[in-house]
Amino acid sequence: MEQRIIEAIKSIIKDNRRVMTEITDLYSYSYDASFGTYLPEMVVQPKTAIEIREIMKLANQEKFAVYPRGQSTGLSGGALPVKGGVVLDLSKMNETLIIDPENLIAIVSPGVLTADIHKEAEKYGLIYPPDPSSSQVSTIGGNLAENSGGPKGLKYGVTKDYVIGLEVVTPEGEIIRTGGKTVKNVTGYDLTKLIVGSEGTLAIITEAILRLIPKPPATKTAMAIFDDLVDSGKAISQILSNGILPSKLELMDQASIHAVESYEPIGLPMDAEAILLIEVDGHPKAVEDEIIKVEAIAKNANAREVKVAKTKEETENLWQVRKLVSPAIVQIKPTKISEDATVPRSKIPEMMQKLKEIKEKYQIHLVVFGHAGDGNLHPNIIADKRDKEEMKRVEQAVKEIFEATIALGGTLSGEHGIGTMKAPFMEMELGPAGVDMMKRIKDAWDPNHVLNPGKIFPDSGQKLVLSE
Which of 389, 407, 425 finishes a domain? Predict the structure, then answer.
């Protein structure tokens, strides 16, 4: 990057400790939790919307790329600086975390950790329902950009369902507010919903107003063990079709069970093909009734055993099993390709069967877990990127997973986003006209394509390449 641009940015960011150009610092910002490494030319840690506004005005004038970034926990490459330029590290914008219990809202800066919002809300008997697995380390700004989900998405919805207002900096360097503190707001286009989930391509979020709800008074958790993976999918469909809406309904396949038991032995059934973890919440009497029904439905769907947690400790132990999956599977091989293909609930058994076939066809280490209650499966492929032949098989398997998902009426992403990883497959789901309509929105908001370029939209002829 030219020295005059560096000096111009330093004149905007008066504390030059928040401007990094040393190669050792830049490497720390060259990757996220997905696949690929891209080195930025500069990293800036803004503290105010005004600083961001001035940087964006400069970016349009000088035509350099700007990439907003939180804690870099993204799984689709959404924050990677694929065209060099400047990374905006928003994790330092974390000073505002206000709970307004009378209006049931939280007002937060983008760098606030999502888990801290949970903790603060609970002090008032409230909850912020979206709970991505990375909530202990991910920023709310990143969650907003990716429209993150999590286990409670089945009953309570995802991030976009709890955002009622934003302050953002536009790609051309204007500070605007969308929505507000009112639950109802139909003044003009819903720009709030457009920005949430746009993966940092349409605006940089500098403040958010989030909706909170009262904490349910009671919860119950059960673990159902299955000898057949497809039976577990049938159980999911039957639970939901019987009028029970769990707050969480999570799946682990046999590969997940083996990985967890090898990583931290806790007595899981190694011969089981699948485990379902089911949580119901609400009024204590309703919860007691629903967990009994869940147990009966699971057994009717050929569950070998159903364990209902009797104490808080037992409940925590059951959920610890699910939390251990991600750290466990990366012990098997160093490269993890994390997907989140999502299908209609009624198609879960068919998708389970298709994943089994893909695993056998390509002889890959495929681990399936995820938020199965809303059809949001996480097929994770564990491989070694140094093995070029294996990675070619992985590429083919990923393509077939997406093809199967779309054929079953599903979507490429339920919560991880498109980023760089899934861009080559966008037309498969949306068609050329659908992608073109999105491109027109991007062109209108960001005519110079300076904000997070290289994401969502595939370059001409772009293919998924993992074997280079």
Answer: 407
Give a yes or no: residue 250 inside a domain. yes
Q: Round to whole Å and give the CA distance between 359 and 185.
A: 47
pLDDT tens per residue, range 24-48: 999 999 999 888 899 999 999 999 9
Which CA distances in Å does 51 have to 78, 175, 323, 356, 417? 22, 11, 38, 51, 27
Nearest to 103 by CA among 40, 31, 180: 180
Cβ-contact 162, 179 below 8 angstroms:
no
Contact at 8 Å (CB) between 323 and 369?
no
Question: What pLDDT does residue 372 have?
Answer: 85
| Domain membership of residue 101 as a residue range | 97-214
Measured in degrees and rounded to the nearest 5, phi and psi for residue 281 equal -140, 165
> Strand 248-253 and strand 274-282: pairing?
antiparallel
What is the arithmetic mean of pLDDT over 162-166? 98
Task: Tell me the CATH number at 67.
Answer: 3.30.43.10
Whether 47 and 196 map to the same domain: the answer is no
- 248-253, strands of its sheet edge to edge: 303-308, 218-226, 274-282, 248-253, 365-371, 376-383, 335-338
pLDDT digits (tens, 9 = 90+) for 336-373: 898 888 999 888 888 888 998 999 999 999 999 989 88
434 in a domain, yes or no? Answer: no
Asked if residue 412 is part of any domain, the answer here is: no
Q: Is residue 443 part of a domain?
A: no
Give CB contacts under 8 A, 24+ apart, made by 156-159.
156/129, 156/130, 156/213, 156/247, 157/129, 157/130, 158/130, 158/415, 159/130, 159/196, 159/197
pLDDT, one tens digit per residue, over 293-345 is: 999 999 999 999 999 999 999 999 999 999 899 889 988 898 989 888 899 98
Q: Give the domain-ending residue among 75, 92, 109.
A: 92
Model pLDDT, residue 39: 97
Mean pLDDT on 216-227: 97
Q: In terms of pTM, does the model score above 0.90?
A: yes
CA distance 275 to 135: 23
Distance CA 240, CA 116 (A): 31
**Residue bearing tokens 């089981």:** 272
Angstrom distance (rounded) from CA 325 to CA 263: 9
Q: Is 365 helix (H, G, I), strand (E, B) or coil?
A: strand
Give the count of domains, the chain. Answer: 3
